[in-house]
Amino acid sequence: MTELKRTDLFDLHHELGARMVPFAGYEMPVQYPAGVMREHRHTREKAGLFDVGHMGQIILKPRSGHLEDAAAALERVVPVSVLGLKEGRQRYGFFTNDDGGILDDLMFANRGDHLFLVVNAANKQADLAHLLTHLGDECEIEMVEKRALIALQGPEAETALARIASDVASMRFMDVAVISSDFGELWISRSGYTGEDGFEISVEGPRAADLARALLADPAVAPIGLGARDSLRLEAGLCLHGHDIDATTSPVEASLEWAIQKVRRKGGAREGGFPGATRILGEIENGAPRRRVGILPEGRAPMREGTPLFAETDGNTPIGHVTSGGFGPSLGRPLAMGYVPAELAREGIRLFGEVRSRRLPATITGLPFRAATYKR
Amino acid sequence: MKYTEEHEWLRPEGDSVVVGITRHAAEQLGDVVFVELPEPGTTISKDDEVAVIESVKAASDILAPMDGEIVEVNEAIVEEPGKVNDDPEGEAWFFRMKPADMSALDDFMDEAAYREFIG
User: Fold this and answer.
1) Please, are residues A45 and A222 in contact by the beta-carbon 8 Å criterion?
2) Residues 100 through 119 of chain B touching chain A, CB cutoff 8 Å
3) Could you name the CATH architecture of A289-376?
C-alpha cells in the first residue's frame, strides 16, 4: 500500500481533534468532535470550513496567448460551452469517454489569460494525463501542487470571508476572482458542494493553515469533515463521481443534461465534437434508458449505496440500485439517489428498496431534496 | 455489569439480563439515526443478528450475547435513536433477555477487563 498523502491542513486537523480516514490517497478528516450531525447543521445554519486540498487544481494556458484557443481545445473533451464562458465566471462540466460515460466531473473558470480547473482527487492524475493527450498541442497544462483549497460554506460564509477579503461580498454564484489578502493571493470562486451559498478558496500551501485559523476564529465558522460534506451534498442532490456517476453512466442518464448548453447540442453552432457525442446528443433528443432520481424511503431505515430497487414487493429482478444514500440531518429523514428505468423516473412513483432482505417502500422525488440557497 | 467484545454491556436483573451498547461503541458509531429491535418473545442464539443500529455513517448489527429469549425491548430508542448517543449505558438500553443459562454471564469481561480491551 502506498503511503497516504497529507494536505497543508493536516496538523490543524489533529489540533482540532479530527478523526482521520484514508480518502482518495489522502489522510482526511471524516469528522471532528462535534460529529457529523452537528457539523451538517452548523453548515446550514452558520458556516462550515472544509479542507478540500486533496482535489486537483489545474491551469490550462493557451500557447498562442489567445484564451479562445484553450477554450476550443477544452471543448474537445467536455460537452459544455467553454467558449461561451465570460472572464471571471465558472461553470460545471464533465469529461466524457467515447461511450458517452463520465470520466470525471469538474468546475472550470475563465481567468482571462488561462482556464482554471478543479477536479476530483481520485481522478486528478488521470484527468491530467487525459488533458495532456488531447490538449497538449494547444495548451501548457500545469497541475498546481503548491496551493491548498479550502471551502467555506453556509449563510454566514460571506460575512466571515469578507473580514479577510472584503471584495467577496460583491461576488455572485459562480463568479471567480483573484483577491490579495494578508494570506497572499487568494483564488476565490463563489461555489461549493453543499447547496449553500459559499466559497472555494485556493491559497498558497504554507499559508493555508493561518488562513483556516483566521476563519475559524470567527465563532460562526466550524471545521467540517467528509462525513457531513457527503450528507450536505446528498441533500443538495449533487453527484459524487465514482458513486452516482462514472465511466458507465451518461450525462443524460445522470440527469445532468442541464449542464450541456444549446450551442453544443443538435443544431447548435458547435454541435458535438466531444467524446461520446452520438450517444449523448441522441439521448438528449430521444431520452436515456434510465435516469438518476431522488428516492425518499417511507420508513426510517436508510437505503445505502448498493441497495437494490424493485418495482414490486415480489419479483426477482431489480430495476436499479441506490448510488448514494443515508440520513439527511436537515431533512430529518433518510434519503437516497439512484438509477431507475426512464418510464419509472417520475415524481411520486412508488418503489421498494431491499434492506436486510426486506422490501421497504420508497417514493421517487425530484432533485434536489432541499433547495439551494446560492446568491445569484 | 459485564461486557462483550462486540461492545455490548450486560446488566443482570433477577433471572433476566438487560443489554445495551457501551459509550465507547456509541462514540465510534457517531450519530445514531435508526434502530431496529427484535420482537419480544423471539428465541435467540448467541451471535444471532438481533438488532440493527445505523449511524449517519454506517449500519452495524447487534449480536445476541447468549442463547435465550427476548422478553422486552426499548421502543424509546426506536422513536428517538439519538438517545443512544446521549445515554448509551442508561436510558438507551436495547433489550431485556432471559438467558437459557445465567452462568454464561461469567464468560464475559468485567469493567476493568473491558477498559483494557478498548485500550
Assistant:
1) no
2) none
3) Beta Barrel (2.40)
The domain B2-101: what is its CATH number?
2.40.50.100
pTM of the model: 0.95
A324: nearest CA partner in chain B: B57
Q: Does B80 touch chain A (CB under 8 A)?
A: no
For residues B55 and B61, is the Cβ–Cβ distance under 8 A? no
Answer yes or no: do B36 and A301 touch at CB < 8 A: yes
With contact defined as beta carbons under 8 Å apart, do A284 and A252 qualify?
A: yes
ipTM associated with this complex: 0.87
CB contact (8 A) between residue A302 and residue B59: yes
User: Hunting for cell 427484535 — which residue is that?
Assistant: B38
> Domains of chain B: which residue ranges?
2-101
Number of C-beta neighbours around residue A25 at 10 A: 15
DSSP A153: E
- Give the pLDDT band of residue A135 (cuts 50, 70, 90): very high
Rounded Cα gap, residues A25 and A54, in angstroms: 8
Q: Which residues on chain B are in Cβ contact (under 8 Å) with A40?
A: 56
pLDDT band at B58 (very low <50, low <70, confident <90, very high): confident
The answer to whether A108 and A85 are in contact (CB under 8 A) is: yes
